[in-house]
């Protein structure tokens, strides 16, 4: 028994050679969009790519890389030895130098083109050629596909240098944004929300770029100066990085018959998506049309659940364009994101994002992305009016499914088995007028308080919008809520198990829905600031705290991280909002 256990837990991948043995590429090489001459992947000049799944791109290594962090959780899931993250050949590969990787790993990576829709409107003007053929992964370069413990994973460098889609930019990511992305992915996974995963993070000791950023304490919406920042490469991992935008690029080409194989390529990409992301729920034997419909149904279900989960944990994507919407239904692109402190339905951390991508508008933004997803697939059903009609029904049914997911989520946050509209509406009004800290409020509520005093820990007293009579209204609300959840709980039974619910059980369940710790922007700022001085201790501390967001943790952690946002952090660039995610 002891032997068996140690065998199961001991890492099976201790070196890059071990990892190389698991390399297994499912790239559609028949859909390589670059002419033969460019197979070495070193043509970084912005150019139009008219067809195909990907272009070969050799990443540009960062100079003199230094280890910052790796995901211990994910390494353990993959059976990777922690020591590998600091081994010379692993560091070399995941800081962008794949020229020496062992066979059968490939010495050239790849980047993909994609289209852009913003809130359901198609765009091409962001493409330097105005056609949409020059837009895509501008700094994301995939370097490996491997089947590990029966699961296929794609590993992608972010900040891996220029690609044909870089649009004149440098293809780099800075340490600041890479720390944010690395930690946010770790946190999101620990929150139980589907996401691309963090693998590793390396910074250059010598290479820097200039980026616009805020002077300390700046209240201006836009950065007011250029700062020099170290470049970094974080590696993210997912079953695939196919975006709704990529399907759209293929869908638009098919719709406009831009080239003779456009429809065929769309079908191939759809089948590839099904294989990479939906193989467990869509039978390979089905016809293409059947697959399209099941794919749309399944994506709808994943997307609605994803967005309800975002709202459950206080996450705002900030720029929920179709090119930031993973077709596999998980969170992707941690640039303009934020976790809200003060509850505000209009919370939007990114100054460029607009209200359409605000916190509680995310269900509508998701619906627009779903519409674009279905529009992209519809040429595949062009000769089948009944199937097209079914696809349309799936689009029409989005808001109902979304609403159901939201109601279930709100009920769970309140420890109730059903949604009570009047109770919720009054709560939402009170949360805005008080206003409350979103995370702290629901966590305090999870202790089933008998009066409103404990809830006041979440109140931003200085920001009160309607102080008159608030306490009385809160007390009335709490009494009403308690009558549903609290006093009569002993008599209640669980609909599924028939077991009686105790107060302890309800509190326990609520604490698994309402996290105690949330990756607030003002916690990230000191972590990446210290990191820029070569001190990674706060990054690692935050990683440790934020990968157990539901646990109580120590008193010391609670004192430091379970707190209201300080008044001096309000309305400050880089702390309350950001204009730049690169
Ligand atoms: N420094 C950069 N160099 C080249 N391209 C960039 C750079 N910053 C952003 N881009 C490109 O701009 C586009 C939109 O920006 P966005 O912030 O969504 O990208 P990103 O942060 O690189 O994201 P993603 O996580 O979606 O790959 C993407 O095509 C992206 O690759
Ligand atoms: Mg993006």
Automatic annotation (TrEMBL):
InterPro entries: SelO. The active site is at residue 323. It catalyses: L-seryl-[protein] + UTP = O-(5'-uridylyl)-L-seryl-[protein] + diphosphate; L-histidyl-[protein] + UTP = N(tele)-(5'-uridylyl)-L-histidyl-[protein] + diphosphate; L-seryl-[protein] + ATP = 3-O-(5'-adenylyl)-L-seryl-[protein] + diphosphate; L-threonyl-[protein] + ATP = 3-O-(5'-adenylyl)-L-threonyl-[protein] + diphosphate. Mg(2+) binds at residues 324, 333. GO terms for molecular function: AMPylase activity; ATP binding; magnesium ion binding; manganese ion binding. Keywords: ATP-binding, Magnesium, Manganese, Metal-binding, Nucleotide-binding, Nucleotidyltransferase, Transferase. Nucleotidyltransferase involved in the post-translational modification of proteins. It can catalyze the addition of adenosine monophosphate (AMP) or uridine monophosphate (UMP) to a protein, resulting in modifications known as AMPylation and UMPylation. HAMAP family: SelO. This is Protein nucleotidyltransferase YdiU. It comes from Shewanella psychromarinicola.
